[in-house]
Design brief:
Chain lengths: ~800, ~150
Amino acid sequence: MPYDSQSLVTASSDDCAREPIHIPGGIQPHGYLLSVDEAGRVVQASRNVAVLAGIDIEAVAGRALAEVVGAEAAGLALRALDSLEAEGIPLYAGSIDDPRTGRGDASSHPPLAIVVHSHLGVRIVEFEPARGRAEVFASMYPLVRTFINSLQHAGDIEGLAALAAREVHRITGFGRTMVYSFDDEGHGHVIAESMEPGYASYLGQRFPASDIPVQARALYVRNRIRLIADADYVAAPLVPALHPATGKPTDLTYASLRSISPVHVQYMKNMGTWASMSMSIVVRGRLWGLISCHHDTARLPSFEVRTACEHIAQVLSLQVEAKEDHAEADYRLALRRTQTNLLASMANTEDFVESIGSDARSLLGLVGATGAVAVFEGRIVRVGDAPPDAAIEAMVTWLDAQSEEVFATDNLAQAWPEAADHGLGPEAAGVLVVSLSRLFRNYVIWFRAEVVRTIRWAGDPRAKLSTLSTTLSPRESFEVWTQIVRGRSQPWRQAEIEVAGEFRGALLGIVLRRAEELAQLALELGRVNRELEGFSYTVSHDLRAPLRHIVGFADLLRDMDYSRLSDRGKHFIERIIAQARFGGKLVDDLLAFSQMGRAALRPQRLDMKALVERLVSEESKDIGTRRLECRVGDLGHVMADPVLMDVVLRNLIANAIKFTGLRGVDADGAPAQVEIGVEPGEGEHAGHDVFFVRDNGVGFDMRYADKLFGVFQRLHRVEEFPGTGIGLASVRRIVERHGGTTWAHAEVDKGATIRFSLPRDFVPEGTTGVNETAAEAASRLAAVSSGQPYKPVLKDLKDLKGTENECAETDPAGRGQS
Amino acid sequence: MSVLRPILLVEDNPDDIELTLIALERSRLANPVVSVRDGAEALDFLRRQGAFANRTEENPAVILLDKKLPKVDGHEVLREVRADESLRRIPVVMLTSSREERDLLKSYDLGVNAYVVKPVEFDDFMAAINDLGVFWAVLNEPPPYGSGAGSAE
């Protein structure tokens, strides 16, 4: 089971986090601390001030500062206090000789540096041992000069850290100097080290976040240097214990002499350290890392050295920030360049979802992923090492319940414990998701494979837990403890998450533009359709007229002057009439076809068997003596436009009868067979009824099957089987308008089967006239059926007069009975 | 009333006029046939104005009206006729190449009495014209004179 470092941090820091380390009530005894009021009188002092001043500690409070530490020191301190501009920032006031030296103390005392600060209305003066009385900055510069000069040669952050470790080691003489950086979870990772022989190396190891409790981290950001000169020190308590002005213990957040938590002192001793100094590396206001010095005996660096180290830490902080910014900027630039390439290639393709997948390198490189999928309108396009489709679908369902537009984790199993149950494996340890539309379930998901990490802890981070509940104590072992971390990927960087968000925006732009283009296309289509309507209208009027005229005059010529024509002339006139008639039929068929695509559908519940039986009897009237066997299955009912369905089935049945024209002619041959049936649709036709019309006629070559349903497509010579080639095109158009499809299967000389599917739950687009009467339907049928627009019923006047009443009933205007 | 009312043929295409006249001729109707070439002429004839200010013929027994006409089209003529108190009861038959639904609807909306699509087959065309002539000129009982059938007095 992977070790959950996050919860460990929380648990083990808790006890430490309650310790009020900023009000320890005393200081380390290598220096002296006094608090003075506005009038320059001492109101509180560390107990060791008595030694410094040569008076009883009880006598210190209430005296002028000059009386306690001498006029020179008091002058420097009070002037500095008066010049303080910001709360909490210590100011170096100057250096003095130890007052005891002035009083003729025989033993040698180092000079003292005076540092003042003000915090929460309390004015504090500290004295720390210094190297000399010279201006501190003058003596500090030679110490840090080497470091500053070498900075520009340090290549990366590790190089900078190594340089800082070496310089701090050199300046301070501490046995070991480490630089470590904190990861996102607060664990310290030792990235540089410089030591004396005999010190254990911690390079490359990790210190668990629990080693530095939360409030200590906060303190480290504010006060950037801590020195513990002697782990065996006995704190010098403040007298009186409560500050007279506030009535509370004095807050020593910014005091460099602040006494250290006994827990921390114990931690040091456990580590074999008797003196330590640490400087904060603060980057963009966050505690980025520490420079930490350890020594196995007590060690007190001078004030100048401490200041120099503080300065080195500040310079390092700035350099790290600059390097990180630079590296981040470079990376962002690279990501953005990748994004630009990706978007450019996507924008230029018709199917941008497909194009996401076609540029795998850019898609993965965009966020540094090892796999990716684009989920778009039910399609899944996969790139690189991505989980199987079923797992993706389960994940999308899970994602639908999330709310972020951009979601990232390097530990999917933690964010979604069921991930593994759905088949998401180590290839999906880390995921970065952008959701384009939750409604339509459109996502782009990037994956990062699991990275099995071996972490070398400086001691088992769990060791501390065992005793934690009873006493507040630091861990005791610093032996290397190796841990394997599973189920996690490299964490997603902020730049990657941001570029994913930008990519999402760009994708939305593309999707939106597609929608606009579609709308534009629909508009254009509407315009073209209207044009086409106008065109067919013109055809209807202007093309039919000349054809009628040709037929008319040719007929007249034949009627009146046939006997005077030569045989060839007679032949020509027959050809003229036949072709003009055919032309007229073509125009009529074409018009009917174009109307089928436009006229509104008026679906009704339709008895298919009744319809088919009627059509069979009508269409088989003219077959003469040919033997025809016709089987009509139990066709049930459908929701369809009765007029248009009449056209569909009439075409199919007429074709079947037409193309079986050579069957059943001879008495001994097989009869023509036509079968009309229905079967439930399967696969892509699920939810449809599939009707078929099967015959044993001439069939056709399947190579031309795709031409079968095209306008004016004929697979047989017109002399063999007449027709204009529009019938099946009409069938297809009508079926498609009902939401179905058409297809055919055939074998030459064995027959053909034409199939069409109709959805069982057909809902037509914007239907109005559902309650069409039979008469209305009949007139509509006349309009869409090609052929005879007018069939004369009455042959002469005599017939007419005898059937006046019948005639009246069929009068289109219904006015005959008046 | 012994004078036979004429049949008014409104048709711009000379071939159609010729074929229609032949068809009417063959149907042996006694009624005279007047043909005009556009909608404006048709209205002039009906209203006895312009070139027809002095026409002697009765108002027609039926108007055979093409839809697509120069100047004033068939629908416009129909609308004018139906709006004219002295003409509005004259039977009007649309005789046209168009089988467009919208033309049909518009014609009936405007009060047409019949709508016939000219057949391509000449025999059928002849039969259609014959039937129309017989029905409207012989069989059909026209509205009485002075009741919007548009007689002069």
